[in-house]
Design brief:
Layout lengths: L14 H4 L3 E5 L4 H12 L3 E6 L8 H4 L7 E4 L5 H11 L3 E4 L6 H6 L1 H22 L3 E5 L23 H20 L6 E6 L3 E2 L9 H11 L3 E3 L5 E3 L1 E2 L1 H14 L8 E3 L7 E3 H12 L5 E3 L16 H7 L7 H16 L4 H14 L2
Helix pairs in contact: 4-6, 6-7, 8-10, 10-12, 12-13
């Protein structure tokens, strides 16, 4: 099932802006990159991708045949020459940089590699964008780029991070800000950063994430093991922040002040403890799915993460279109359909259309 042209026209994204526009997505083979690449294809953009082989088996990129509608180059953002060549060949009007080492626990196992990908990789992409004359760049970082605090984080709050992953994302923010100030003037690229976290959705098979872990447990007929049930996270469907990323990209060519940092988080009521989300997942899946707390001796994790997205609401008119119950239902429906043998691209297309239909 192909994505229907115009199916998403009423999302807060202008199809006329994207139709025929050349767009490069780094990290296009990942979970978020796959959803974004499919959306851009539907909008009529000429999409190119640069990233590693899909990070999981199975993967949304392969299951939904994302590569069929785009030019896909396999490479590492740490390879400066390869990044420069990919940007030169794609000649993008807009570059969306998603390629990253995305896992907190992996950053403890390979801290240096995490900094190389998330910091040096970002510098390589931005340098290539400047050299190629790209007009608009959106750098995707994370809600974890902020110094730990109990209050909802706003864009001007201190950056920090008490683990290598979070710190590397704070560093990526500083790199983007330096490029924006040093090379984004006098005809250089307009550069924005966007911050979101704990996205969920169909086709995510990453390790050490609550929803993929729950799906694996359900399909295997075993309990879901939860490391930290009291941790509070800003849960949301992946399409919510992706809509914000696209809206920011549109504004970069029109409004200089859009070249800044932006939060895209859920409604405050969707910032919940892990245990409550696990309860809802178990109820939606049924079939006796249960969870239990079981620490595994892993590294410490931030207790509370909350985002304040007032800036995006007030200046972009953006708001989360799906709340957490919608997101969890859509995610469970996606995996149930996939497990029953349904076409993954068709499932994804249907959910994109449903997201667009929500007022």
């Amino acid at each position: 099932m192909a994505l229907r042209p115009g199916a998403l026209a009423n999302v807060g994204v202008d199809p006329a802006f994207w139709r025929g526009r050349r767009v490069l997505v780094t990290g296009h083979t990942g979970f978020k990159g796959s959803w974004l690449s499919l959306w851009l294809q539907e909008l009529g953009a000429e999409v190119s991708g640069y990233g590693l082989e899909p990070p999981t088996e199975p993967s949304l990129f392969e299951a939904a045949r994302v590569g069929e509608g785009m030019a896909s180059a396999i490479g590492d953002v740490r390879d400066r020459a390869a990044v420069a060549e990919a940007v030169r060949v794609a000649e993008p009007d807009v570059l969306l940089h998603l390629a990253a080492q995305p896992l907190v626990r992996e950053s403890f196992a390979d801290p240096v590699g995490t900094y190389e990908v998330n910091v040096s990789g970002t510098a390589n992409v931005l340098d290539a964008a400047v050299c190629a004359g790209v007009r608009a760049v959106v750098v995707v970082t994370s809600d974890k780029c902020y110094a730990p605090r109990a209050e909802p984080c706003r864009e001007g709050d201190p950056l920090g991070g008490s683990d290598p992953y979070s710190s590397s994302k704070a560093c990526a923010e500083l790199v983007a800000a330096a490029w924006r100030e040093s090379f984004g003037r006098d005809g250089g690229p307009a550069i924005a950063t966007v911050r979101a976290g704990n996205v969920i959705g169909g086709g995510d098979w990453a390790a050490d994430r609550l929803v993929p872990d729950a799906i694996r447990a359900a399909l295997d007929g075993r309990p879901l093991l939860v490391r930290n049930p009291e941790a509070i996270r800003p849960w949301q469907h992946v399409l919510n922040p992706l809509s914000g990323y696209l809206e920011v990209a549109q504004r970069l060519g029109e409004e200089p002040e859009a070249a800044a940092a932006w939060n895209f988080g859920p409604a405050p009521g969707d910032e919940l403890p892990v245990r409550e989300v696990a309860d809802r997942l178990a109820g939606l899946w049924g079939e006796g799915l249960e969870w239990r707390a079981e620490g595994d001796g892993g590294p410490p994790e931030t207790a509370v993460l909350r985002l304040d997205s007032a800036k995006a609401r007030e200046r972009l008119g953006w708001q989360p279109r799906w709340h957490l119950d919608d997101a969890l239902s859509a995610t469970v429906d996606w995996f149930r359909a996939w497990a029953a043998g349904a076409d993954a691209r068709g499932i994804t297309a249907a959910q994109l259309a449903a997201f667009a239909a929500r007022p």
